[in-house]
Design goal:
By secondary structure, the protein is mostly helical. The chain folds into two domains: 33-105, no CATH class; 112-148. Helices cover 77% and strands 0% of the residues. The chain has seven helices and no strands. The two termini are 22 Å apart.
Amino acid sequence: MQNKAVLFMMVIFLLATGTTALAHGGGEAPVDVKSLVKQSIAFIEGIEDMDMALAKLDEAIDANKKQQVADGELLQEAKQSLEAGNNEEAMLLMVEAIGGDPLVDLELAPSFQFNLANIILLIIAIISVFIGILLLRQKADVERGANNE
């Protein structure tokens, strides 16, 4: 019985992780300017990693040369402000460059979305934990029985 349960768990695990691994086809898609700017702001506000913030801002400036969706001059001003250590001004300029309202858009919130795949994987994870607990209890009961004999 225990071998069948372990085999079942292995099959479920392989199916769950295998489909996720195979789902990523092709290369990386280009990241849009707005996402790069928001990542730069997150590095400033979140972990205060100015090198990464500057790197993301440079990527945004380069991407904007191709996409032309943001105000390039404001992005350059934001870069100069960030290099000068004026983080607040840099963030305001970045938000304005992508057409946002600094009073509204500087409040970052997580954007995790529950879709069907995430819900299924969450359910599989919970079931796996419960099956693991049951298997450990069975193993402990068997070992206690063997020790008592």
